[in-house]
Specification:
The chain is an alpha/beta fold. It is about 45% helix and about 15% strand. β4, α4 and β5 form a beta-alpha-beta unit.
Length: about 250
């Protein structure tokens, strides 16, 4: 018995990183998984690896209303319904606020915040029609606190938590639970931009993070599984920090 037997879950940004691990874990736990991304080769290859009976790739730019409608239609045609959503797609750019071009700010908001809104708006009615289910939004520890150099990103992730709380209130009566994961530093392509020395990064996280290391994407996937499955049946509207203790307080060392 898998924890997601009988479920059909759409995961955005599923071609790599945390979304990939969520797709893999959800499929292993019995779900049919619809993988949405703009990286067609990687997303298609992952769906093929997971198997046609278990996974389907759809091109889904989360900023596009048309892509959302097409993705939901494809999911229903392939698997009959949709009763879970993981809004995972996101982008990060580093810039001080006073140096951030308007286009960059808007691009980050468009993917991280508007993409999450469009996902909720498009998929929630389908989940309701399926008899209820779950939405897991991907915020960040910067959805709960500030961090210099990522102003647009932090603003968009704070907004994701606002969307999460309001959606939880509005959708509870339809049997839909809405929660958010708030990862700290997780080892994915996003947190490993080209040119950054891995040894220096490992040393940084050894000092910064109480648990002494960067997080793994499969650890975030395990939290998303908890929030998607029945183990979290009485939880909605909440942010869940997964950061190795980074936000627990000020470290002396
Ligand atoms: N890695 C971290 O340290 C970290 C920390 C906190 C929060 N997060 C959040 O976790 C989520 C996953 O990030 P990740 O670390 O796996 O990054 P990643 O860059 O490895 O993966 C992000 C995925 O989203 C996809 N994507 C980007 N724009 C898209 C769009 N417009 N439409 C559809 N897909 C799109 C990318 O193609 C990619 O597959 C993001 O929302 C990110 O903000 C990551």
């Amino acid at each position: 018995m898998g924890k997601l037997d009988g479920r059909v879950v759409l995961v955005t940004g599923a071609a790599r990183g945390q979304g990939e691990q969520e797709a893999r874990l959800f499929a292993a736990e019995g779900a049919k998984v619809v993988l949405g991304d703009v990286l067609d080769d990687a997303g298609g290859a992952l769906a093929k690896e997971l198997g046609e009976d278990r996974a389907a790739y759809v091109r889904l730019d989360v900023t596009s209303e048309g892509d959302w409608a097409a993705a939901v239609a494809a999911a229903k045609e392939r698997f009959g319904k949709i009763d879970g959503l993981v809004n995972n797609a996101g982008i990060l750019r580093f810039n001080e606020l006073v140096s951030t071009p308007l286009e960059e700010f808007q691009a980050i908001v468009s993917v991280n915040q508007t993409g999450c809104f469009l996902g909720i708006r498009t998929v929630a009615p389908e989940i309701a029609a399926a008899g209820g289910g779950t939405i897991v939004n991907t915020a960040s520890y910067t959805g709960l606190t500030g961090m210099a150099g990522v102003g647009a990103y932090a603003a968009s992730k704070h907004a994701v938590l606002g969307l999460t709380r309001v959606a939880a209130l509005e959708l509870a009566g339809k049997g839909i639970r809405v929660n958010a994961v708030c990862p700290g530093a997780i080892d994915t392509p996003m947190s490993n931009p080209e040119g950054v020395d891995p040894a220096a990064t490992a040393e940084l996280y050894r000092k910064l993070v109480p648990l002494g290391r960067i997080g793994r994407p499969d650890e975030v996937a395990a939290l998303a599984l908890f929030l998607t499955g029945a183990d979290s049946a009485y939880i909605t509207g909440q942010p869940f920090v997964i950061d190795g203790g980074w936000l627990a307080g000020v470290s002396l060392f």
